[in-house]
Amino acid sequence: MLSPRARVLKLYRDLIKLSKTWTSVKPEHTVEERAYIRKETRSHFRDNQNVTDPAKINELVKEGEYRIAQAHHYRIPYDKPSYLPPQTTFDVHVKNKSYKFRMPKKPIA
């Protein structure tokens, strides 16, 4: 079992590695999405650098791991709004901060 510090450092390394290897669904957005992942990673880690409560650290690490899994599964690096149904995927335009929903490839059963 890893210590909380080791889990946090591993999460940070995994996120930076993801930002370097990320390929977008639309190749022209790859550079923009890589920069977004790096920026979000750095800002979240800086915002939470003074957290010392082990329960809160565990919660934040789980959230980060969830975001990585979500990015790999949906091929979307952006945080999914909580009000969307689980099967919904979407495109995000970072500069305009707008969403465009994608239709599912298979009907939802």
Automatic annotation (TrEMBL):
Residues 7-67 form the Complex 1 LYR protein domain. InterPro entries: Complex1_LYR_dom (IPR008011), Complex1_LYR_LYRM1 (IPR045294), LYRM1 (IPR040330). One of its GO terms (cellular component) is mitochondrion. It comes from the Eukaryota. Belongs to the complex I LYR family. This is Complex 1 LYR protein domain-containing protein. The lineage of its organism: Eukaryota, Metazoa, Ecdysozoa, Nematoda, Chromadorea.
